[in-house]
């Protein structure tokens, strides 16, 4: 069966691939954001040594190709540390850490964007460092961060397509399979591309609503 | 009582405060005058612990602000109103005023809100209790700043150039409230450029010059020919400040 036509079953395949992509994206986003937020808290408390290590590691993750990181985790780590690594584990680990590194940078700038004056006021009124982080800094930093964060996540959604290279059956991998079977690359990659596009647009729209909600205290009074 | 003993503050090689001594008794209104850069705001920032002392000691009701336990106790006894209001922009007026009573004093929310609403009524912002600070004028924001401070039921109110960022009309709004507080016996340390107002409400006037406290006198004496006006520096300052 070399030059087979499209069948209705291909839609099921496509849906499965989309499910894997979205599932992996959701999982790595949750882990990545949680880890990024945790690193930001560590950084806020200026924990000695750890703060520097965090910055160094995130710099490495931000400034090297995700595909290389993926190869390192999938091929390099099992060889070096004698551990088993399934494609899904490798994909989860790599993309989560990568998201965490960028989220850390975004959250950190969000924290730094909160005016020092308010923090001084809160200190004078006797709030603890934790209360200041929780009540004063976090809500404002979240509002500042959500825009750049949506940009990051839209990008990370595209980045998940790289995991098809190590054999995870995501949307791109399904595209590959359909392409090899039908030899209709234009149709296949148009459909796959459009699917990513629609997901990204939906994500951006959701993010926009969240941003408006978080920034409700800031009203435009005209220019 | 706020006791300031031989307080020194240096930023690098710059001496901002030089061996300052000052006592503020409960019920007193003490105004600190001096030109910009004389160290007035720094002194307030030393009392509320935003700046660490380079020398000397400050005690608020006996609590030494240079120890962390002492500072926490001192901060419970005083509250600060800031020049640029320093409100929390993501919280409504009501939340700005109730945050510290709930979080720091552990007041029940209902009680804190009732008290906050009473204060907000008092400063004439009843309709704005649920507005965000950005919707308010400068004078209204500063009135919220005063409510936020009063909600902590402080023994000492520290006022750091609270009208310097306001136009004359808004300044009037804020000063009217401060005059009422002074008349009710609120203890205040008042850093300001509003000379005439200071003269009306203060018990004592302190004059800082280049980080040194050069005069500490009852208000009447400060403005008399044989008292403050006999000091050339103060005469020059007052004539400049009251010219217009």
Automatic annotation (TrEMBL), chain A:
Instruction: Name any Gene Ontology BP term.
Output: amino acid transport
> Membrane topology type, per the record?
Multi-pass membrane protein
Q: Which GO terms describe its molecular function?
A: transmembrane transporter activity
CDD domains to which the protein is assigned, alphabetical:
TM_PBP2
Identify the GO cellular component terms for this protein: ATP-binding cassette (ABC) transporter complex
Keywords, in A-Z order:
Cell membrane, Membrane, Transmembrane, Transmembrane helix, Transport
Q: Which domain of life is it from?
A: Bacteria
Q: Which residues cross the membrane?
A: 20-45, 89-107, 141-166, 186-206
Q: Which residues form the ABC transmembrane type-1 domain?
A: 18-207
Please give the PROSITE patterns that the UniProt record associates with this protein.
ABC_TM1 (PS50928)
The answer, when asked if S-adenosyl-L-methionine is one of the entry's keywords, is no
Q: Where in the cell is it found?
A: Cell inner membrane; Cell membrane
Read off the InterPro entries from this record. AA_ABC_transptr_permease_3TM, ArtM/GltK/GlnP/TcyL/YhdX-like, MetI-like, MetI-like_sf
Family assignment?
A: Belongs to the binding-protein-dependent transport system permease family. HisMQ subfamily.
Q: Could you tell me what this protein is called?
A: Glutamine transport system permease protein glnP
Recorded source organism is Limimaricola cinnabarinus LL-001
Species lineage, top-down?
A: Bacteria, Pseudomonadati, Pseudomonadota, Alphaproteobacteria, Rhodobacterales
Automatic annotation (TrEMBL), chain B:
- Subcellular locations according to the entry: Cell membrane
Q: Which residues form a coiled coil?
A: none
* One Pfam family matching this protein: ABC_tran
ABC transporter domain: residues covered: 2-235
Q: Which PROSITE patterns match?
A: ABC_TRANSPORTER_1, ABC_TRANSPORTER_2
Question: What InterPro entries does the record tag this protein with?
Answer: AAA+_ATPase (IPR003593), ABC_ATPase_HisP-typ (IPR030679), ABC_transporter-like_ATP-bd (IPR003439), ABC_transporter-like_CS (IPR017871), MetN_ABC_transporter-like (IPR050086), P-loop_NTPase (IPR027417)
Q: What is this protein called?
A: Glutamine transport ATP-binding protein glnQ
Q: Which organism is it from?
A: Limimaricola cinnabarinus LL-001
């Amino acid at each position: 069966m070399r030059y087979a036509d499209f069948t209705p079953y291909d839609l099921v395949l496509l849906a499965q691939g989309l499910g894997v992509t979205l599932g992996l994206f959701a999982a790595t986003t949750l882990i990545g954001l949680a880890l990024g937020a945790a690193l930001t808290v560590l950084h806020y408390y200026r924990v000695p040594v750890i703060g520097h290590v965090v910055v160094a590691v995130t710099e490495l993750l931000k400034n090297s190709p995700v595909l290389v990181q993926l190869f390192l985790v999938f091929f390099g780590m099992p060889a070096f540390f004698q551990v088993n690594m399934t494609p899904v584990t490798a994909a989860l680990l790599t993309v989560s850490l990568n998201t965490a590194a960028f989220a850390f940078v975004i959250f950190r700038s969000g924290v730094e964007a909160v005016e020092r004056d308010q923090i001084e006021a809160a200190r004078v009124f006797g709030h603890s460092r934790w209360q200041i982080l929780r009540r004063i800094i976090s809500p404002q930093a979240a509002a500042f961060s959500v825009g750049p964060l949506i940009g990051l996540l839209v990008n990370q959604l595209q980045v998940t397509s790289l995991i098809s290279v190590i054999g995870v059956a995501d949307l791109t991998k399904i595209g590959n399979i359909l392409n090899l079977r039908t030899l209709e690359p234009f149709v296949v990659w148009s459909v796959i591309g459009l699917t990513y596009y629609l997901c990204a647009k939906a994500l951006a729209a959701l993010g926009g609503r969240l941003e408006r909600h978080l920034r409700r205290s800031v009203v435009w009074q005209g220019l | 009582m706020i006791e300031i003993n031989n307080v020194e503050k240096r930023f690098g090689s710059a001496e901002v405060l030089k061996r300052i001594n000052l006592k503020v008794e409960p019920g007193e209104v003490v105004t600190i005058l001096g030109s910009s850069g004389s160290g007035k705001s720094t002194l307030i920032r030393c009392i509320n612990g935003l700046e660490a002392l380079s020398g000397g000691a400050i005690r608020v009701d006996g609590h030494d602000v240079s120890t962390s336990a002492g500072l926490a106790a001192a901060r419970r006894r005083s509250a600060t109103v800031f020049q640029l209001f320093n409100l929390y922009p993501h919280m409504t007026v009501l939340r700005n005023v109730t945050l510290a009573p709930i979080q720091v004093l552990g007041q029940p929310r209902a009680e804190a809100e009732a008290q906050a609403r009473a204060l907000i009524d008092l400063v004439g912002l009843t309709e704005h209790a649920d507005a965000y600070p950005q919707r308010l004028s400068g004078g209204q924001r500063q009135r919220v700043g005063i409510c936020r401070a009063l909600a902590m039921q402080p023994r000492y109110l520290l006022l750091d150039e609270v009208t310097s960022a306001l136009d004359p009309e808004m300044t009037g709004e804020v000063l009217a409230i401060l005059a009422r507080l002074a008349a009710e016996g609120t203890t205040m340390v008042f850093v300001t450029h509003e000379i005439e107002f200071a003269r009306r409400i203060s018990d004592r006037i302190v004059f800082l010059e280049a980080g040194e406290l050069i005069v500490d006198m009852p208000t009447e004496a400060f403005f008399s020919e044989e008292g403050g006006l006999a000091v050339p520096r103060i005469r020059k300052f007052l004539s400049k400040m009251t010219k217009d």
